[in-house]
Design brief:
A hairpin with a 5-residue loop joins strand 4 (64-69) and strand 5. The protein folds into 2 domains: 17-149, Jelly Rolls (Sandwich); 155-228, Winged helix-like DNA-binding domain superfamily/Winged helix DNA-binding domain (Arc Repressor Mutant, subunit A, Orthogonal Bundle). The protein has helices at 17-23, 28-34, 90-94, 116-125, 128-153, 156-171, 183-190, 194-206, 222-228; strands at residues 36-40, 45-47, 56-61, 64-69, 75-81, 86-87, 102-105, 109-114, 210-213, 216-219. The strands form 3 sheets. The protein has a 4-stranded antiparallel β-sheet. The protein is built from 9 helices and 10 strands. The chain has 240 residues and is of the alpha+beta class.
Length: 240
């Protein structure tokens, strides 16, 4: 019996930062004007785990990986962020400390950055900026809680397939590119072991759902992938 999970992790991990500006009563133009635009090449590290706290990044173009060092000293990929996501918000909350993860550009990336000094000036003219940052933090916590629930209550095979669904949704708008992630990275993102990821993806490949290449995964049949991942069918595009 196929049990369809009521949630759907294939969309953005959090509400977009632009949508949060409106909800917070903050003028997006004022926020953009206060930010500094930064560009990163594919593979460039935006900041390292352990670096001094720096600015908040509002991701405008491209996608990035978030990696942590495990207690055993290994490096684990824990998330992939896409346009509309934000990262590095902790520095605006506490103003001290270190970066808690390494963030690397998976593609060409553009971000809008807001440092603490500029944030302090902006909040005097725009009180909604405090609520905006709080909402960014809250959205990230909700996303983390959802990932934890899935890790605890969804079996590993389904977690792997849902991860591929979400990555396909991230990479698809980028010119229909294949997913540029290794099976080791998918294992670390889902909490599954490498052999489980290999088995699940190999089975999907035999069934014509996807194609595996070195460091790449191409989804050939998205509806079939969603069925295997026990997700609702994707909504049909609006003709309005």
């Amino acid at each position: 019996m196929l049990v369809v999970w009521e949630g759907d992790t294939t969309g953005p991990a959090c509400p977009t930062w632009a949508s949060l500006t409106a909800l917070a009563g903050l003028d997006e133009v004022a926020l953009r004007t206060s930010c500094r635009r930064r560009r990163y090449a594919r593979g460039e590290v935006i900041f390292h785990e352990g670096d001094p706290a720096g600015p908040l990044h509002l991701l405008e173009r491209g996608c990035v990986t978030v990696r942590l060092t495990t207690p055993l000293g290994d490096v684990a990929t824990v998330d992939v962020l896409q346009p509309g996501d934000a990262f590095g918000e902790q520095s605006l909350v506490d103003g001290v400390g270190e970066r808690t993860a390494t963030v690397t550009a998976l593609t060409k990336v553009e971000t809008l950055t807001l440092d603490r000094a500029t944030f302090a000036g902006l909040r005097e003219a725009h009180p909604g900026v405090d609520r905006f940052v709080l909402m960014v933090v809250t959205a990230r916590l909700r996303s983390t809680s959802q990932q934890l629930l899935e890790a605890l209550y969804v079996n590993a095979d389904v977690r792997v397939l849902r991860c591929v669904c979400r990555l396909a949704a991230i990479f698809g708008p980028l010119g229909g590119d294949p997913i540029r992630m290794t099976q080791v990275e998918i294992a670390s993102m889902t909490g599954a072991d490498r052999s489980t990821v290999n088995r699940v993806l190999a089975s999907a490949q035999r069934n014509g759902v996807l194609r595996l290449e070195r460091g790449r995964i191409t989804v050939l049949d998205p509806p079939a992938l969603r069925r295997l991942a026990q997700l609702r069918p994707a909504a049909a595009p609006s003709l309005a």
